[in-house]
Structure formats: structure tokens, C-alpha cells
Design a protein that fits this description.
The complex is a heterodimer of chains A (270) and B (281). In chain A, α7 packs antiparallel against α8. Chain A has one domain. With 270 residues, chain A is an all-alpha fold. Chain B is mainly α and 281 residues long. Chain B has one domain. Chain B has 13 helices and 2 strands; from the N terminus they run βαααααααααααααβ. In chain B, strands 1-2 form a two-stranded antiparallel sheet. The longest helix of chain B has 32 residues. The chains are: A mainly alpha (270), B mainly alpha (281). Chains A and B meet through α2 and α8 of A and α2, α3 and α10 of B.
């Protein structure tokens, strides 16, 4: 057990290492999954890209987006989906089960932050293949465009990757928090994924209600469109600043709701 | 916990048909009561089907400056609202239910009842259809309001084919799900197999994109594969993309697929049941 005076950053860093190692060891036991995962990735990429090919087969531009620019959005979508399904949703789906069965007690008893523990409980390392697929889409898109992002765009893109993962994670925390109130929440995760699927399209294609929902309520714009604009060098500083502020506010709200939800938890025996 | 295992033999299906038919109203009522009890969950499932609306928005943007092939904006509206309605009306979640019950052994209690489990599943999920019909009625109202003149409502023959194709689609989806769900007897990842199936289905059924708008090799493949008969075919009949003769011929193909999938599903189910060991029985 670590002494209480240890620097929290070091302590949580070590904890993360331990949790990640457990997941890696588990994944190594199912090496065959590597091939299955590769096959699924190729299939999934084709299904994701096909509508794009069909739509841009009918028109050269849709709502001001060219084919290659829309591909950058798809690249971000594929990247975030890999992060979501490799790093976020496996652990957080388990929380729902913990709440339902009352076994969250065992997590709460441990001397570390509960949100940290449940969020790092399980990773799926083989999803790294999906990240490879996403990078391939980026390379293809920029080769198609004929110009590559400069260091400034790459840096901004990286900043938006952090923001996008944060927003994605915060949204999941909100979904999981719902488990404390309504318990039967496993299909909320399906709802989340089905909404997330719309993130493969540039946000400006949508009109009216859908546009506002995907910008403010379920901020897909922050996760795929703005990061793509950042890489393409088309994002204004004001939009970037606002996006970051919105994302931070989102994370703070998610943390507050989680703490509130934890307060509602009635444990297994009561 | 003891690991004593119990070998269970399936209830006899042959002579029990009349018996099962008598039990059907009760099973149906039980299924209806379950949906009413878990209505929030039911609504979340319904909301999960939102892809047709997203695709409708996309195609509206694309067709803003003129039609794509045969499809103008209103035709896209008719198509995707039809897809949404048919999909909501005909889908079930029996594959998740089966794979869970096989894995955790609760299937055992179904096997002990004097009704074939597949029949019980079918009754339970058919009970969802009236509720689903209520949920989709606003969608249908919007469909008729926005694109009523594009629908085959005036042609009683086509509407009869549409009704028959809906039943065929329901059965096709149900038996496919039973087939994949029964794979849980053999492998851990029946749900992963199903998700693969869903991905292929999204393309070849016309769920994402009207089959006409797809590259021609996909259209040709979709014409012979079973996926289209689960979704695209009823929708095409509803919005009048098919003439009466073509629709009738394809209805025959659809019901042929129903029989084939029924046979396959029962085969996998029976083979799997022989391997089924319920723990702690």
C-alpha cells in the first residue's frame, strides 16, 4: 500500500499502470481476437465509408464540404469510436452491472477515487487496430486533398483530440450516472452509440433541430466536426475558444452529476 | 456451488401444435404485461433506431439542388420514414434475450414448460407489435401528410402484398435472430456475430441507403440475398417503387427465405440444445 503522503499524480499514474497491465494481460490470453478484430475493423470501415462514397458520388460538394474534407471528419469519428470502445465503454458498462447487483460496494471501499477506479477498470487493447484504421483514413484524405496539415494545425488538432475525448468521456459518465436512478440502463448505452454514429457526418449538413441537438445537447460537433476543421486549418480562434470552454463546462457538470449520483447509491444491503 | 449438470431434452414439438395454439393468448398477454412494466426500456429501444432520420437529413441536403436518380427530396422523405416505420414495427431483441438465457442457464426454466421455447419467444415478441404500432402511428401520420401521394395507398392489391411482406419480414428477422442467438450454445460471442450481421444488414437491406442509389454490384447482390426482404422490400412496396407483378413475385421469394431460415434456425437450435448443460440444475 502506498504511503498517504505520496504525490497524488504519481499515485494515480501508478494505479493506471496497474489497471492497464491487467487489461493487457487479459487481452494477451485471447490473441486470436487480434485477427477477429482486424477483420471486424475492415468490415466496419467499409460500412462507414460506403454512405460517404455514395453521397459524394452524387454530388461533388455537400453543404460546402468536399469528399476529402468529409473524410477527415470520418477519420475523427473512427478515431473517437476506437477510444470509446477501447478505453471508455468497457469499464463504464461494468459500472451499470455493479450498481444493479450492489457490488459497487467493493469499489467504494478502496482508498482511491471511485470515478477513477471504475473508469480505468477495463481496456480493450486490440482496439489499437481501429486507431490504425482511423490514421489510414486521415492519410488517404490528406493525400486526396494534396496538402498536409502544418505544425500549427497538428497542435490544434491534438488539443481537440484531448477535448473530444474529454467530452466523450463526460457524456458516458452522465449515462452511467443515470444507472443510479433508473438501474435498467444497459440499453442507454445502445442509445448513446446510435446517436454517436451520426458523428461521421459534418455537422453543417444537418438543418434545424438536428443541428442544435448535435451541437449543444449531444455535442457531436465538438467531437468530430471541429477537430476536423482544426486539422484542415479552417477553425477560427473564437470558435476554438468557445468549444474548449463548452467542453470544460461539460466535464465539470459530469463530475458534479457523478458525485451526486454516488450519493444516491444505496448499496447492496439496504 | 455444485457443478452437477442436467441434460435436458426439448419438449415434443410435433403433436403439441394445437396445445401451443391454445396457450398463445396467455403467452401474448404475458408479453404485453412485460412491455407495459418495462415501458421506459421499451422507449429507449425505440429511440435507438434514429439512423433513418439522420440519413434523411443527409439526403435532404444532397437533393436540395435537384433529384438524385429517381429520388427527389419528398421521395427520400417517403423512403426513410417508411424505413423507420417498418424497422420499428418488425424488430425484436430476441437474440440478446436468447444468448443471455443460454449463458446464465435460465433457459432451463423455459425447457421445463410444456411449450416449445421458440414458440414462447415468438408469442412474447409478437405481443410487442401492437405497442410498436402505437409508437409508429405518429410517424405514419407524418409520412401520409408529407408524402401521401407517393404511397401505394390507392392500390388495394399492393397494400395486401405490403401487409404480407410485413409479416414475412417479421418472421425473417425473428428466425435470423433465433439462428444467431442459438449460436450461444456453441460460442461465447453470439452477440459479436450478430453485430457483424447488423453491419452487413445495414448495407444490403436498404437501411442506410436506398438500394437503387448504391453501386450496381451491391444492388445485384442485394436482389438475391435475404437482407432486402427484411426491410427494403416492404418499404419499396409501400412507397410504390415496385409494380404489382414484380412485388408479387418477390413476395414469393421472401416467403421462400422465411421457410429456409426457419429450417436453419430449428436445426441450429436442436443441435445446440444437445450440448446445453444448465449448471446447478
Amino acid at each position: 500500500m502506498a504511503p498517504a503522503t505520496e504525490n497524488p499524480v504519481v499515485r494515480y499514474g501508478r494505479l493506471l499502470g496497474v489497471q492497464a497491465r491487467v487489461s493487457a494481460v487479459t487481452a494477451m490470453q485471447y490473441r486470436g481476437d487480434f485477427l477477429v478484430r482486424g477483420f471486424v475493423t475492415v468490415l466496419w470501415m467499409s460500412v462507414t465509408l460506403l454512405p460517404l462514397f455514395v453521397v459524394f458520388g452524387a454530388r461533388r460538394q455537400v453543404a460546402g464540404w468536399s469528399f476529402a474534407e468529409a473524410l477527415v471528419v470520418v477519420g475523427w469519428f473512427a478515431l473517437l469510436r476506437a477510444v470509446l470502445e477501447g478505453g471508455v465503454s468497457p469499464s463504464l458498462t461494468a459500472v451499470v452491472e455493479h450498481v444493479r447487483r450492489g457490488t459497487l460496494d467493493f469499489v467504494l471501499l478502496k482508498p482511491a477515487d471511485a470515478q477513477f477506479l471504475v473508469s480505468t477498470a477495463k481496456f480493450e487493447p486490440w482496439r489499437i487496430i481501429d486507431i490504425g484504421g482511423a490514421l489510414a483514413i486521415f492519410v488517404y484524405a490528406f493525400a486526396h486533398l494534396g496538402r498536409w496539415p502544418g505544425p500549427r494545425e497538428l497542435l490544434l488538432g491534438l488539443a481537440f483530440l484531448v477535448l473530444a475525448v474529454m467530452v466523450l468521456y463526460s457524456f458516458w459518465i452522465l449515462v452511467v450516472s443515470a444507472a443510479f436512478w433508473v438501474v435498467k440502463v444497459d440499453n442507454l448505452s445502445y442509445l448513446f452509440q446510435s446517436l454517436f454514429d451520426a458523428g461521421r457526418w459534418p455537422i453543417t449538413i444537418f438543418r434545424g433541430a438536428l443541428y442544435y441537438i448535435f451541437t449543444f445537447v449531444f455535442p457531436l460537433a465538438l467531437m468530430t466536426t471541429y477537430p476536423a476543421l482544426a486539422l484542415l486549418g479552417k477553425l477560427t480562434a473564437a470558435t476554438a475558444g468557445l468549444a474548449w470552454m463548452g467542453g470544460l463546462a461539460f466535464a465539470v457538470i459530469a463530475r458534479a452529476v457523478w458525485l451526486r449520483a454516488l450519493g444516491m447509491y444505496t448499496s447492496a444491503s439496504s | 456451488m455444485t457443478t452437477a449438470t442436467t441434460q435436458v431434452s426439448p419438449p415434443r414439438a410435433g403433436g403439441a401444435l394445437a396445445h401451443a395454439a391454445r396457450a398463445f393468448p396467455t403467452l401474448f398477454k404475458v408479453g404485453l404485461a412485460e412491455i407495459v412494466a418495462y415501458r421506459a426500456e421499451f422507449l429507449v429501444w425505440i429511440l435507438t433506431t434514429n439512423m433513418p432520420l439522420v440519413m434523411l437529413a443527409i439526403w435532404h441536403a444532397v437533393a436540395a439542388d435537384g433529384p438524385v436518380g429517381r429520388f427527389d427530396q419528398r421521395e427520400f422523405t417517403a423512403y426513410y420514414l417508411g424505413v423507420l416505420a417498418v424497422r420499428l414495427l418488425t424488430s425484436t431483441w430476441v437474440v440478446w434475450q436468447m444468448s443471455m438465457e443460454i449463458k446464465d442457464g435460465t433457459l432451463l426454466s423455459r425447457l421445463l414448460r410444456p411449450i416449445h421455447p421458440i414458440f414462447a419467444y415468438a408469442a412474447q415478441h409478437l405481443a410487442g407489435v401492437p405497442m410498436r404500432a402505437i409508437v409508429i402511428s405518429p410517424i405514419l401520420a407524418i409520412l401520409v401528410f408529407a408524402a401521401g401521394d407517393r404511397l401505394a395507398l390507392h392500390d388495394p392489391g399492393l397494400m395486401a402484398i405490403f401487409a404480407a411482406s410485413l409479416l414475412g419480414a417479421w418472421l425473417l428477422i425473428f428466425f435470423t435472430m433465433v439462428l444467431v442467438g442459438a449460436l450461444a450454445f456453441f460460442v461465447d460471442s453470439a452477440i459479436a456475430v450478430f453485430e457483424l450481421w447488423l453491419a452487413v444488414h445495414a448495407i444490403f437491406s436498404g437501411y442506410l441507403i436506398p438500394l437503387e442509389a448504391l453501386p450496381s454490384w451491391i444492388g445485384r447482390a442485394a436482389a438475391v440475398l435475404p437482407f432486402r426482404f427484411m426491410l427494403g422490400f416492404p418499404v419499396e412496396v409501400l412507397i410504390g417503387l415496385l409494380g404489382p407483378r414484380a412485388a408479387l413475385a418477390q413476395l414469393g421469394v421472401q416467403w421462400g427465405y422465411v421457410l429456409i431460415l426457419f429450417a436453419c434456425a430449428m436445426l441450429v437450435w436442436r443441435t445446440g440444445l444437445r450440448r446445453f448443460n444448465a449448471f446447478g440444475g
